[in-house]
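Input structure tokens:
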């Protein structure tokens, strides 16, 4: 399966990307800036997750999208609604019918357990 991951630069999204790769999935990931430590094997895309055209390119040939965006320190308060609207349009354009949203804001980091 080819998966698109939003937020792969964060803790949760990065883990999702690595797990998907380990399970043999193809991964296309969107980052707001080019990461220095992206998981090997990830197709890198850089851009704004609220931009419909950026998401449309990311979702090309994808079977599903996993949104692991978190609030971050510099994220605008309307991030979820802005990205949600763009994601609805982009998935419609590309025919992607599976969308999963995950988050780790309320969970402890394994190194803190």
């Amino acid at each position: 399966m080819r998966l698109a991951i939003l937020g792969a630069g964060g803790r949760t999204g990065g883990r999702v990307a690595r797990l998907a790769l380990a399970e043999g999935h193809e991964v296309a990931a969107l980052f707001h800036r080019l990461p220095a430590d992206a998981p090997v094997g990830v197709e890198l895309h850089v851009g704004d997750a609220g931009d419909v055209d950026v998401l449309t390119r990311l979702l090309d040939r994808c079977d599903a999208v996993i949104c692991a965006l978190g609030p971050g320190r510099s994220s605008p308060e309307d991030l979820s609604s802005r990205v949600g609207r763009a994601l609805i349009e982009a998935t419609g354009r590309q025919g992607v019918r599976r969308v999963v949203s995950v988050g780790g804001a309320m969970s402890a980091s394994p190194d803190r357990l």
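The longest strand covers residues 26-31. The beta strands are 2-6, 26-31, 42-46, 64-67, 98-101.
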